Amino acid sequence: MNLLVCISQAPDTTSRIAFTNEDREFDSNGVQYIVNPYDEWYALVRAIELKAQQGGKVTTITVGGAGCDPIIRKALAIGADDAVRIDSEPTDALQVARLIADYATGKEYDVVLCGKETIDHNGAVVPAMLAELLDCGFVANATHLEVNGSEAQVKREAAGGEEHVKVALPLVLSAAKGMAEQRIPNMRGIMSARTKPLTVETGSAEGGTRIERFALPPEKGACKMIDADNAEELIRLLREEAKAI
Which terminus of the chain, N or C, has less C-beta within 10 A? Predict the structure, then answer.
């Protein structure tokens, strides 16, 4: 079984968020980057589990510059067999999907796994775009995946419950919490990651998005404490002030 896992880097959640160039660019000074958790904990680990069960190969793919290499090496340390980095600065979701699709076309991947979203942009659109470009099945927000022959059985989140679906391979899937459990790279994995292949490809797709301005969310207002016996005041505040929050 050939499995392709889309890996992206994201700022650590403790990073200070600031912008430069008149708020048009993210200020990366001092920012610690990590593997996007949905990609690492769920998509990558489940791919490695499937490989252990059925054999095959796990390849990761990342769109970005050489600064992404450390997070790619971490994915290799966790258990991926090799990695591909498309040397292009990502500007929007469609550009990323096109670059990955261009690489994957004709390589006969059985399943392409992505995290359901990145923790910085939270767009959750690359997996669906990728499935459309590859002209194959797609399941979003999957919490469980089994593969039997040429068919996949998938559980996915749905409003008020859970859906069980069967999908013919090849398949693009976005993984959510529940798909797998986080793995910590061991020393053997870290050492072997240094020698695993990391192929760099050139990318030519252009993005269609232009950032006009980034803005931080407004600061939270002061907390108002209402006496438990003063229900009238609480109702007044909810009616008159809470609407504007």
Answer: C
Predicted TM-score (pTM) of the model is: 0.85
Residue-wise pLDDT tens digits, 141-182: 999 999 999 999 999 988 888 999 999 999 999 999 999 999
Which pLDDT tens digit goes with each residue over 120-129?
888 899 999 9
> Which tokens is 96 given?
């990323």
Rounded to 10 degrees, the C-alpha dihedral 52/53/55/56 comes to -70
Among the listed residues 112, 182, 177, 181, the one whose alpha carbon sits nearest the alpha carbon of residue 142: 177
Q: How many CB atoms lie within 10 A of CB 13?
A: 10
Which residues, including other chains, have CB under 8 Å from residue 69's CB and lie 6 or more apart? 85, 198
- Domains parsed from the chain with CATH numbers: 2-217 (3.40.50.620)
